[in-house]
Specification:
about 150 residues; ribonucleoprotein; 3-stranded antiparallel sheet; ribosomal protein; two-stranded antiparallel sheet; 7 strands; mainly beta
Length: about 150
């Protein structure tokens, strides 16, 4: 109930999780209509490929789709949140903030890696993130790495 009457992109303190602040990013209601930022009434809008809530199959196509308003109410079934701020010394949320997953893939082009880390041409190889892949075609094949 702490999210009721809050808009998209508004920051809310975590009630069950003390010390955490969340930002509301989106949500869906019971009929499956998604929330759209800036819409204060539930109505059909003419959407293009640059808008959220609609993905065009062809370029420059438009479609009138129903969207939900941007204010959270009791008819919302799914609410998407982002952790914005964590105060020091607070308890971790089990399964969400207690384990840190390493970044699986990184930049591929050597020029982008050099510009990102400010490196010379000789120092690029140690910053390439590689992952080990097993072959799906042959069983028992030796695993290989790819960038």
């Amino acid at each position: 109930h702490i999210f009721y009457d809050k808009k998209i992109a508004q920051e809310v303190p975590g009630d069950e999780w003390n010390g955490y602040f969340f930002r509301i990013t989106s949500g869906n209601d019971k009929q499956g209509f998604s929330m759209k930022q800036g819409v204060l009434l539930a109505l059909p809008l003419l959407l293009t490929d640059v808008h959220s809530c609609y993905r065009t199959r062809r370029t420059s196509k438009r479609k009138r789709k129903s969207v939900r308003r941007c204010i959270v109410g009791p008819d919302i079934t799914v609410l998407s949140l982002v952790i914005v701020c964590v105060c020091q010394g607070e308890a971790e949320i089990p399964g969400l903030t207690d384990n840190v997953l390493p970044k699986r893939l990184g930049l591929k082009r050597a020029a982008k890696i050099r510009s990102f880390f400010n490196l010379a041409k000789d120092d690029v190889r140690k910053h390439v993130v590689r992952c080990e892949v097993e072959s799906r075609k042959k069983e028992g094949a030796k695993p290989y790495t790819k960038a």
